[in-house]
Amino acid sequence: MKKKIVILGTAHGINVGGKCSPDKSFREYKYSREIIKQLKAELEAAGYTVIVDIEADEVPATQKVELASRCAIVNKICKEYGTANCIYVSIHVNAAGSNSQWLNAGGWCAYTSRGKTKADTLATKLYEAAEVELADYAEAMADGKKSGAYSEKQRPFRTDYSDGDADQESNFYVLAHTSCPAVLTENLFMDNMADVAFLESEVGRKAIVALHKKGIVSYFE
Ligand SMILES: [Zn+2]
Predict the structure, then answer these.
(1) CA-based nearest residue to 117, from 184, 177, 180
(2) What is the mean pLDDT of the chain?
(3) 12 C-alpha to center of ligand 1: Å?
(4) CATH classification of 5-220 is 3.40.1400.10, yes or no?
(5) Does the pLDDT at position 213 exceed 90?
(6) Ligand 1 center–CA 53 separation, angstroms
(7) N-terminal to C-terminal alpha carbon distance within the chain
């Protein structure tokens, strides 16, 4: 049987400043770890080997060391299991500002490193899954534009078709320095009140877990 190794990347750490909602009720490091815990259990139940890059709440003190150690962990696993059997998915929550005030941006997106790689295939699968699992969210965003929760130009799925597929291209360190296909998801906005309410809800948490699971499973099929 083909090996299916999923490496999940947690966002930041308890010791990293910012990365929270303006009222500080929502913290990105914590949400990412909670989603990953559930996703890991569900993928393992489906027969996947799942490894979390940094499971602890605390991360190395400088971002440079933190990101380098995440990549070292991923690349070591790739070496051990075979790069072709591995994928890396880093799970984040977006912000439109500096986390000091509520803003009206929203939406889901995924980033890959620049150029056409197998990560684009993985990202496309994640977008397809997001469109299914976040269908209710997309509808709520349309209503939210009327109430001012979202600005007119917001889209539920933020895309960049400049290279022919939906994912946004970025040279995020962990995407550029990992040997297997790597995608970073930005799961809505922690400085949008409506997005935070959705993320924290039971329905929202299930949808975020489900879209990752569905996208990953469909990539390996
Ligand atoms: Zn982040």
Answers:
(1) 180
(2) 95
(3) 6
(4) no
(5) yes
(6) 15
(7) 12
